[in-house]
Amino acid sequence: MIRWQVVEVHARAVRLVSYFCSPLLPDRAALEQTARHGLAKSLVAGLNGRMKILIAIIILIVAGWSAGWFALASYVGSVADDTLTRLSAGGTDVTCADRTTSGFPFAMQVTCETVEVNSPQLVEPFAAGRLAAGVALPEPQRLTIDLTSPIALGDSSLRFDNADAIIELRTDGGFDRASFGMPSPRLTAGPFGANATLLSGEAQRDEADLTVSLTGLDIKGNVPQLASLAPANLWLFATLEDGYRDMVERGLTWRDVLTDGGRLTLRRLGLQTPGVGRLAVSGIIELLPDGRLNGPVRVAVADPASLREWVRPLGPQAEQVVATLTQAVNGMGQPLDIEGTPMRSVDVMLDNGSLRLGFIKIVDIPPLRLD
After folding, report:
1. Quick one: pLDDT band at residue 16, thresholds 50, 70, 90?
2. Average pLDDT, integer, range 334-351
């Protein structure tokens, strides 16, 4: 009985304390809500601090990038001025009218509204329209050039739709590869004129050597005899051995380069007439310093009758050359496939400008002008 009374008194005491103290103690839900609110405020405060730091870093990067870009633009301008000064001291005067630098923030482009060049290496003064050259991320070694028509060399002019070129630069100031495209070129040189639907080319450097390829589509001339020829496609593939620096960096003429030990090897010269007529000349054709051609070559022909008809406006001698090649190909030729075109080929010799089939002289080729 005594033990039960003690327990009852203890329970009443607990209820009494709870009754008077409950207003002072928050319940569990209130405690959890308060904790969550405090944590959220802490997270927001932390995020705000981090965002402020991130924004500050971005502002510093943008400011540094902008300052660097404009500093580089100023440096490019000073390098261009120094280059023009050095060229002028060597006798070559280059004028870049209304030069501007643009491309911010991820490119750098220098634009000349007009370009004029006077140099001892040029027969006549050179002038061109608007020229824009620049590089862009992520390929800063890739130089892109845009040129507007026309180009003038003395009294001669070349008009075209906007031309473009791409040059892959080297750290030593040279280049590894260069290519260009010129839609609808139209050449006027005194009484002579020519036009095409496209002129394109590529140059590939291999240390001291330079390999060049040129392509002309639907080429047609308007001089006597040539004017009556149907438009044709032409291809040229050649290598300038041990002459890159002489030609590109020193600006020597072809004759001087060849005299100095360089060698120009014509590896392929191709002609395609309307229809299926085609002529391909390949081999190690050496261009001598006096402009004559020398070396063994392979001549391949497809549809000789079509070729003979195409050269008819050039006169009896041209027809006779094609007729002789046709007889040789038909009699001694071997089948040959060039870029999917079935042809027949025969080996001939260029002997100091004379095209020979064994002991038979087919035609004398005039020396090429190298100056």
Report:
1. very low
2. 85
Distance of CA 116 to the CA centre of its chain: 22
| H helical segments located in 117-189 | none
Pairing of strands 263-272, 209-221: unpaired
Report the candidate in 322, 316, 265 with the shortest Cα–Cα distance to residue 288.
265
* 79-92 tens-digit pLDDT: 778 878 887 887 88
- Residue in the structure block whose two tokens are 């080319």: 201
- Cα-Cα-Cα-Cα torsion 322, 311, 274, 186, nearest 10 degrees, comes to 130
Of 258, 257, 264, 256, nearest in space to 284 by CA: 264
The number of residues making up the chain comes to 371
Of 5-14, 155-164, 208-217, 253-262, which gets the smallest average pLDDT?
5-14
Q: If you write DSSP's letter for every residue of 169-213 in order, what string do you get?
A: E-TTS-EEEEEEEEES-EEEETTEEEE-SEEEEEEEEETTEEEEE
Other CB atoms within 10 Å distance of the CB of residue 99: 16
Q: Using a pLDDT cut of 90, give the percent of the chain over it.
A: 9
CA distance 334 to 366: 29
- Identify the sign of the CA torsion 309, 315, 321, 323: positive
Asked if 264 and 236 count as a contact pair (C-beta separation under 8 A), the reply is no
Beta bridge partners of 274: none
Per-residue exposure over 37-59, b if at least 16 CB sit within 10 Å of its own CB, e if not: eeeeeeeeeeeeeeeeeeeeeee
Ramachandran class of 302: left when φ > 0, alpha when ψ lies in -120 to 50, beta otherwise: beta
Crossing angle between the packed helical segments 316-332 and 304-311, to the nearest 10 degrees: 170
Please report, as a single letter, which amino acid is at residue 129. G
DSSP state for residue 247 in the 8-state scheme: I
Segment among 70-74, 113-117, 294-298 with least mean pLDDT: 70-74
Q: Among 23-27, 204-208, 300-304, where is mean pLDDT lowest?
A: 23-27
